[in-house]
Amino acid sequence: MDNSxxxxxxxxxxxxxxxxxxxxLRRSVGSMARKYPGCTIDVYVPYGRTYPLLExxxxxxxxxxxxxxxxxxxxxxxxxxxxxxxxxxxxxxxxFHAPGDIFPRPVAEMPGIRKVVTVRDLSFxxxxxxxxxxxxxxxxxxxxRSCRRADAIVVPSAExxxxxxxxxxxxxxxxxxxxxxEVSGAVDAAWLMSLYEGLLGx
Length: 202
Hints:
The protein is α/β, with parallel strands linked by helices. It has helices spanning 12-15, 19-35, 77-90, 105-108, 123-126, 133-149, 158-168, 189-200; strands at residues 7-11, 40-45, 63-67, 95-98, 114-118, 152-155, 175-177. A seven-stranded parallel sheet has the order 3-2-1-4-5-6-7, sandwiched between helices.
């Protein structure tokens, strides 16, 4: 069993989501915690809300469900995001992964922390008929910012990778196709850890 000692943080809003995507993310996080017991995993969620789906992590010694240190920040998400940035520095985080397509803005602008974003699809650009102009514009701004600020972009297929290059002019060497997921839909823990350690030069 590998005993990687890096500290990884996730934007917990996606990890705590209901539905198949949130469930797959929780399986990925749990699988990583089991396979790499020396790795510390912090899952950040806004203060003042309950997240029953994250209770399954309570049995893991190396998974922490974290809230920003500024309790008065909720429900003002801009303050919560600043709180995350402060906590990442305090905890000496190596990698921050935004599996929900976008970074909290202050995190995207932070130097010294490797940043990974997952982009599931860009259908609002490639097949825009099902989206309003406002949805397309809003998503485009947010996705472009995340892709350009990320050290690595994780995509589920070569088709999505091609769209990231086409629409955002991202170098191909910054895009990583996760490949065929596990039966549960989770991304392989060893694949993720290899990506994180590569970013940290380990």
